[in-house]
Structures are given as C-alpha cells and as structure tokens.
Amino acid sequence: MQRSDRQAVDAILNDYAGGRLIDRMEMPHRPDKESVYSLLEELFSVLFYGYYPSKARLADDPTDALRMVVEEAMLHMRHLVMSALPCDARYAAMSTAEIAEEAGEITEAFFRSIPRVRALLDTDLQAIFNGDPAAENRDEILLAYPGFYAITIYRLAHELQMLQVPMLPRIMSERAHSQTGIDIHPGATIGPSFFIDHGTGIVVGETTVIGEGVKLYQGVTLGALSTRGGQSLRGKRRHPTIGSSVTIYAGASVLGDTTIGDGCTIGSNVFITRDIPADTTVTMQDQELNLRIRDRH
Q1: Tens digit of pLDDT for each residue in 105-115?
Q2: Measured by CB atoms within 10 angstroms of the end CB, which terminus of the chain is less buried, N or C?
Q3: Pairing relation of β-strands 281-282 and 265-266?
Q4: Alpha-carbon span 124 to 172, nearest angstrom
C-alpha cells in the first residue's frame, strides 16, 4: 500500500475514535436487512402459495409443502424478532432466554394473524380489479401491480407494529418504498378494499387512519402539517383521518389532524388542512388552460 493510501486509511480509523453513535465498530445484536428481505419473500409464499415459488415445492403434497413453507418462515421470523427486541429499551434488561421466549410468543401471534391478513388482502385485490379497467385479471394484479405489492407489505408490517416489534416493520415498509415509490408507514390504520392506482409518490403517515373502500392515485400525500416539534410529537395524532368510499386524485395533499368525511372526492393537486364534510367534492377553482399555436410561417 502506498504511503498516501495508508494515510487515508489511518484518517478514517482515527475518525472512529470520536465516541459518536456512528463510530460503533462492534457488531451489535440487530436485524440484518437482507435477512428481512428474504423473510418477506417467504411470507409472500405463505400468503400466496400458488403464485410465489418456494424450495418446499419439491414435496409431493401441496399441503405438506405449504406446511414446510410456514414452518421455515416461522423459524426465520423468530430469529429476526430475537435480534430486533434488544434494539428497544423495554427489552434491554431481559436475558437471552427471556428474549427468546418473548420472540416465540410474538412470532406465534403474528402467524395466527395471517388468515385475517389474507382476508384483507383478498378485499384489496378485488377492489383493484373492480376499479381498474386496465386490469386483465386478478393474477396480473397479484403478480405485477406495485400498489398491491406495497399494500401486502404494509399489512404484514402493520401486524408487527401492533405487536410492538422494533426495527422490522420499518425495514419491511422501506423495502416496499424502495421497490415501488409508495411510502406507507406501518403504524397507519387502513381498512379493507384499499386501492392504490399507479402509486408512485404516495405517502401515508404514521397516525393516518383510512376507512373502507378508499382509492388513492399517484402523488397523494397524507402527511403531517408540521414536524418542527420533532420527538415532542411522538405518539400524538398528526395525520389525516380518511373516511370510507373516498377517492383522492393525483397530487393531492391532505395534511395534519384533519378529517375527510365518507364518500368525498378530492380532486388533483388540491391542498387540504381543514375538515371536509361527507359526500363533498373538492376541486381547484380558477384553473385556466392557455393554448398558444406557433406560427409556422
């Protein structure tokens, strides 16, 4: 190694002596992102066995194969939950045996929720098919639609969020975000028959509540009015409540602890920071389209 290269290396090593959070060099007990991504693939096989391939397909009986998929996913999740729990101060004083027991109980509770999650996803799948004339069939939606992919990961991550598992829900939701451009916080509460059309650029904040049969187009933001309070806002309501049978068109922003009533239609590019009563259509006024034809002579 050249002297200049060695000096650069030494400078970086010396920088790690600052005692900051980013200066950690030990390998703390925390989830590995790639392992979480791998778990998501296994969970997609659990949810939609006929659509997502698995090594367990080698079994002759599909029921036996599915059982193997579920058991492998449960084992994988238990290990990841064990690695995640110490990241939360509530579990810091627990022994390894106590954390293992807690991880087992959380994993069992999560997998007991799978039939309910599958029932919700079935309503989402049907809502997308009913609402999108471009959809050839439900198979296409399940395998190819980014909106359904993001909704599926949200519903899985939300269950872990409700079980108060640290780290894993956000890693899962950010996987969907990076793959689809759809950012749904796992803490949001979303009812059945949820339809995301196109999806890119959608943001759904942590304390958002969405009713049944809601349809969001690309670029919609359901966000906080202000985050200047930082950590002092933790646990407080700061995102919208969207009623049932609401459609929000592309580019609309609904911000703060506001309520959009049942049956509303929110037009493109509107900016809402106040409550909207039920069965109201909100659009921009005084928009003018100007056309200027070039003179070709």
Answers
A1: 999 999 999 99
A2: C
A3: parallel
A4: 19
